[in-house]
């Protein structure tokens, strides 16, 4: 939360003037009003002191040897990078041209020399009001940013499991197709279902069903070991895995490891004809994307492979390209 400035609070004021007497008078007036004073007698030193101390307000003499006050103001504005520190120019000249040059350089107001405590107090109060208004605006902007981030989170993540939702999966899949196309690297996609989840809900109830979905979601999240791997809830008991830089053989190895991890978790299924514990069926598709590759095409192939995995008895993954499921591949490997 941004700290709010009260109009009654004291300020740290940087006084910049090459002449000692005007600096002394300004210090006396400011301290009588309860403000803390920093002083600089030269333009370059003023910029350095500003960078070191970040004062709340600057009283800046216009006429100085070498660089004038307008130069100092421009340096300070460039150094703030989006911030804003009120600058009051001090000058014996206050014609229209001088005011215009001051505003162009980044100043906010003019005070004619010699300054009076009464006028200085009024100007400072006006600047304090602007500082308070800016702090409030920044606070509201921060609240809006946080609200937008929360809205973005809600719009891209599933409320129950915390996984990416279908919208986010589709968006990420388009991004990874483009990235793998540029890189000339393989991309694997898996769609997977919890086997006989309706029977789970009918037997154990929807509260237990939600708990099961959360457990499986955490397992899928933990299985995403690389930064670009993504697990998402595609809908109901259906999930998606996006696995960039994963060839088809690697995807099958990944799928077998995932099934073993789920088996070790031993989440009881009260009414499954497949196994006493929760199992998954999944469809895999892998390609090195080219200009003809689309997210819709990958999803259709993964969905077709998922259908094949279910038709072959569930509790397995089927690869669309290899036309092989994890059980068959395991048996083939054992014969080698």
UniProtKB/TrEMBL annotation:
GO terms for biological process: cell adhesion involved in single-species biofilm formation; negative regulation of bacterial-type flagellum-dependent cell motility; phosphorelay signal transduction system. Residues 185-322 form the GGDEF domain. Coiled coil: none annotated. The keyword Phosphoprotein applies. It comes from the Bacteria. Residues 12-128 form the Response regulatory domain. Pfam families: GGDEF, Response_reg. The modification 4-aspartylphosphate is found at residue 61. Gene3D superfamilies: 3.30.70.270, 3.40.50.2300. One of its GO terms (molecular function) is diguanylate cyclase activity. One of its GO terms (cellular component) is plasma membrane. Keywords: Phosphoprotein. The keyword Phosphoprotein applies. It catalyses: 2 GTP = 3',3'-c-di-GMP + 2 diphosphate. Its EC number is 2.7.7.65. PANTHER family: DIGUANYLATE CYCLASE DGCM-RELATED, REGULATORY COMPONENTS OF SENSORY TRANSDUCTION SYSTEM. This is diguanylate cyclase. It comes from Inhella proteolytica.
């Amino acid at each position: 939360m941004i700290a709010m400035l009260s109009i009654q609070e004291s300020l740290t004021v940087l006084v910049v003037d090459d002449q000692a007497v005007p600096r002394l008078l300004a210090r006396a007036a400011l301290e009588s009003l309860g403000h803390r004073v920093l002083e600089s007698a030269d333009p370059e030193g003023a910029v350095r002191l500003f960078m070191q101390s970040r004062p709340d307000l600057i009283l800046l003499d216009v006429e100085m040897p070498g660089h004038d006050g307008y130069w100092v103001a421009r340096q300070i504005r460039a150094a703030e990078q989006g911030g804003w520190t009120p600058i009051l120019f001090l000058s014996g000249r206050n014609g229209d041209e001088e005011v215009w040059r001051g505003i162009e350089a980044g100043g906010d107001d003019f005070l004619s020399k010699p300054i009076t405590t009464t006028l200085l107090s009024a100007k400072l109060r006006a600047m304090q009001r602007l500082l308070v208004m800016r702090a409030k605006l920044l606070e509201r902007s921060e609240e809006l940013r946080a609200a937008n981030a929360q809205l973005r989170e809600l719009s891209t993540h599933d409320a129950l499991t915390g996984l990416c939702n279908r919208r986010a999966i589709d968006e990420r899949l388009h991004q990874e197709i483009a990235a793998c196309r540029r890189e000339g690297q393989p991309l694997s996609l898996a769609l997977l279902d919890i086997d006989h989840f309706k029977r789970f809900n009918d037997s154990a109830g929807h509260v237990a069903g939600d708990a099961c979905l959360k457990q499986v979601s955490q397992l899928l999240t933990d299985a995403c070991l690389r930064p670009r791997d993504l697990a998402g809830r595609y809908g109901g008991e259906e999930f998606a895995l996006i696995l960039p830089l994963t060839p088809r053989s690697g995807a099958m190895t990944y799928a077998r490891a995932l099934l073993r991890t789920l088996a070790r978790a031993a989440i009881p299924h009260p009414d499954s004809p497949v196994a006493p514990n929760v199992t998954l069926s999944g469809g895999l598709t892998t390609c090195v994307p080219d200009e003809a590759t689309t997210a819709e095409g990958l999803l259709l192939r993964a969905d077709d492979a998922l259908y094949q995995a279910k038709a072959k008895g569930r509790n397995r993954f089927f690869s669309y390209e290899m036309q092989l499921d994890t059980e068959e591949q395991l048996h083939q490997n054992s014969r080698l």
